[in-house]
Amino acid sequence: MKLFQYALLLLVLYSCKPTQQAANNNQGITLTNFSTSESVAKTLSYLASDELEGRDTGSEGIEKAAVFLEKLMKENSLKPYFKTYRDTLSNFDKPAYNIVGYLEGNDSKLKNEFVIIGAHYDHIGRIKAVNGDDIGNGANDNASGSTAVTELIKYFGKNKGNKRSLLFVFFSAEEKGLLGSKHLAKKLHDEKMDLYFMFNFEMIGVPMKRTDMLMYITGFGKSNMASKINEIAGENLVGYIPMQTQYQLFRASDNYPFYTEFNVPAQTVSTFDFENFEFYHQPDDEFELTKPEHMAKVVNKMIPVLEQMMNAPTKEIELNGK
Fold it and tell me: What value does the CA radius of gyration of the chain take, rounded to a whole number of Å?
């Protein structure tokens, strides 16, 4: 398994071509080719590797992931928001940590408002073996979302083009009932943080089968976030799928505690549409089945959109009905 994974990674690395930094679309926004398949594959293959043993909350494997993510934040000029990058969970019986990095806004007024960009980095660890494999690697769920956040950290850490302050968060214990995000949302609310919106990545490792959208967004009708994203992008970047209502996906990921605590837009994007990936919570959720080129596309499409959203002079993203 490891030899095949390594060989596939080399193939991805050598097949990647350098890209130009930016181009303009018809709407005038700057499109970026910052993220590459090479960069995505390098991070994703490590987070989903057997070495991390499925990243179960409180395990030695997730500790390795935490160290990796802390190092990446430091290398890209993010400061710890708390005393360290680690936010210790108060609602889990073993030592467990959200990893939280801070990038101060560059506008004297708007920097007092915050945007949170996150994904959960835990998975389910060792599970019932299938064909001798008992590691739930969690490549799609949710090393893919975490990898997207690492790419955004690299971009904003380098460019520092954020007027509002940013928190980049890797949540632990999502698989235990959103414990990491519940802990952090309450903590930040108690500190009276002025949160503008929260944006979460969940299972973006493979493309959707449909072509009328790149991703779907949970809580589609809760706010104007979807319409604003598509307006900025100049295309139908995010949409609605009935499955999100059927399975109440708005309540199922780390966006939800921020919605309940702050009553602000807090939503998740995903490309897992219940038809394009059959190894949810199984040992075969491996790096080899993901599509780094697709993930890089998701990141590159979202960079200019998020940049405009977070830098708007007023809070344009609003809950519907406010």
Answer: 18
